[in-house]
């Protein structure tokens, strides 16, 4: 552990309660220390670390009483060791230091153990015990209820990923579970839905059951709709089934997916699933964002593998993967598996739109050439890793630079139109079978914007298409 001795202003030090193991400062002790300081007594340097997300504020790791005493004697700078903890839990480090001079009280030890475990359930009770000066058994007692809740949370995650057809080795890796502890979760899977199913059969609503058991709504839908066919599921979910190639939905269904830039309505995904896949099929969503596709797959009984550049700890079913074009123009497939998807649902960020909302490596920030080069390489890659019969549903729109330009004066250059996508898809070996209109709602534009656009004869874009393709021979 690195440390550096330094003299720093006393005002740059803070007591961060999140990593302070004691109930409070003992003022009697501070008084004695202050008297010692006035008498010229030299104390060991205080220990601090740089406070998170700051560059000139330090939080106390050890020496809260000395620090208070220095302040009360009017000192404006103190000698400190600036520590770099390199992954050691700061609360446990502070606790270990605190018990040197005086044991933590029962309440302090219990609270410290619980706070440390809540923040990081992977901490081992022996490690916690050593830091707070208690035996492992005592720590086990302190955290028993938290542990049961974490285990339950873990069981639910395993259940959800299992239900989506994610292979066991990937579930274990994603959840940070050793093979051995994974085996401990598996046998519980069959019985896990029992109590939620009982509540459903007693007439409780899906969202009531979800709340009560800490499940997500789509997970409970997947239980509630078991045994039903696609059409019955649409009906129960309140989604009118569109018979023609125009899928108009005014709003996203809040029950499916998270609030996410570029979120698409679950009804749209459901229609792709209805027409282009069958129950039990494997769907792959390479850029899954807020998770509408896996959620909808749960409700419609499809398996689903999904990926995104963004790490989503609340959504373990979305596996982290960044599709990156290497210098030789190739991309890598994220999994090695004999199982291949039946349907790919690809909803990439549109060219240049919302570039600031996504990760800096997102393809939305690419130049026009690079964006198209990426997509072409992606479509080629997909073809290599799927079955001959796999279909591709590609969601995109015309990107015209209409922001400040009357329609008749738009240069056309610099934009990407659906024709451009169709061209590269054809080159990559995909043949269009359907193009479905699935416009974005225009309700999100306010009257002032609309009136300004009309005055300038600007023609906006709300069109959006689902292009469905099969592989050309
Ligand atoms: C339009 S959003 C998908 C929205 C999703 N269908 C939903 O309804 O929530 C596109 C996603 O692509 C992801 N993305 C962009 N570039 C990526 C890359 N190179 N690799 C992986 N994911 C990427 C972004 O993080 C973003 O979540």
State the main characteristics:
single chain, about 475 residues, alpha/beta, Conserved hypothetical protein from pyrococcus furiosus pfu- 392566-001, ParB domain, Rossmann fold, 2 domains, seven-stranded mixed beta sheet, five-stranded mixed beta sheet, 17 helices, 12 strands, about 40% helix, about 15% strand, binds S-adenosylmethionine
What kind of oligomer do you see? single chain
Outline, from the CA principal axes? globular
* Beta content: 5-15%
Strand arrangement across the biggest beta sheet: 8-7-6-9-10-12-11
The total number of structural domains is: 2
CATH homologous superfamily grouping of the largest domain? Vaccinia Virus protein VP39
Secondary-structure class? alpha/beta
Helical fraction equals 25-40%
Number of helices: 17
> Gyration radius, to the nearest Å?
29 Å
Bound molecules: S-adenosylmethionine
CATH class of the largest domain: Alpha Beta
In the CATH hierarchy, the architecture of the largest domain is: 3-Layer(aba) Sandwich
Number of strands: 12
Order of helices and strands: EEHEEHEHHHHHHHHHHHEHEEEHEHEHE
CATH topology of the largest domain: Rossmann fold
Look at the structure and give the mean pLDDT.
92
Sequence stretches where pLDDT stays below 50 over 5 or more residues? none
Largest sheet: 7 strands, mixed
């Amino acid at each position: 552990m690195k440390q550096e001795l330094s003299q720093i202003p006393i005002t740059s030090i803070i007591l961060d309660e999140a990593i302070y193991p004691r109930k409070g400062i003992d003022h009697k002790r501070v008084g004695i220390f202050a008297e010692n300081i006035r008498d010229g007594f030299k104390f060991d340097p205080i220990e601090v670390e740089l406070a998170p997300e700051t560059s000139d504020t330090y939080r106390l790791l050890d020496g809260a009483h000395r620090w208070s005493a220095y302040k009360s004697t009017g000192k404006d700078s103190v000698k400190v060791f600036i520590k770099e903890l390199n992954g050691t839990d700061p609360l446990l480090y502070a606790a270990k230091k605190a018990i040197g001079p005086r044991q933590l009280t029962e309440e302090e030890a219990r609270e410290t153990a619980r706070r440390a475990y809540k923040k990081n359930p992977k901490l081992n009770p022996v490690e916690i015990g050593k830091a707070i000066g208690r035996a492992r058994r005592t720590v086990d007692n302190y955290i028993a209820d938290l542990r049961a809740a974490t285990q339950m949370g873990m069981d639910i995650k395993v259940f959800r990923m299992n239900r989506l057809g994610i292979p066991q080795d990937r579930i274990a890796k994603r959840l940070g579970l050793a093979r051995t502890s994974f085996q401990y979760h598996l046998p519980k899977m069959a019985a896990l839905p029992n109590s939620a199913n009982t509540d459903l059969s007693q007439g409780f609503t899906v969202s009531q059951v979800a709340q009560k058991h800490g499940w997500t709504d789509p997970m409970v839908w997947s239980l509630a709709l078991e045994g039903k066919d696609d059409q019955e599921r649409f009906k129960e979910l309140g989604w009118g089934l569109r018979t023609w190639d125009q899928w108009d939905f005014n709003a996203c269904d809040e029950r499916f997916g998270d609030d996410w830039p570029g979120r698409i309505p679950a009804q749209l995904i459901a229609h792709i699933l209805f027409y282009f896949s069958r129950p039990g099929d494997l769907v792959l969503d390479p850029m899954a964002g807020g998770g509408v596709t896996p959620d909808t797959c749960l409700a419609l009984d499809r398996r689903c593998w999904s990926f995104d550049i963004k790490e989503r700890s609340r959504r373990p079913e979305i596996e982290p993967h960044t599709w990156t074009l290497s210098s030789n123009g190739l991309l890598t497939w994220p999994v090695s598996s004999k199982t291949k998807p039946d349907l790919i649902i690809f909803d990439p960020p549109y060219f240049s739109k919302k570039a600031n909302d996504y990760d800096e490596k997102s393809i939305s920030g690419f130049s026009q050439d690079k964006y198209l080069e990426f997509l072409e390489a992606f479509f080629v890659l997909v073809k290599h890793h799927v079955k001959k019969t796999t279909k591709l549903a590609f969601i995109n729109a015309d990107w015209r630079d209409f922001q400040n330009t009357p329609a008749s004066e738009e240069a056309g250059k610099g934009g990407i139109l659906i024709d451009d996508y169709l061209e590269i898809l054809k080159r990559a070996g995909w043949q269009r079978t359907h193009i479905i209109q699935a416009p974005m709602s225009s309700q999100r534009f306010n009257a002032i914007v609309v009136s300004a656009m009309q005055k300038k004869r600007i023609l906006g874009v709300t069109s959006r298409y689902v292009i469905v393709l099969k592989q050309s021979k």
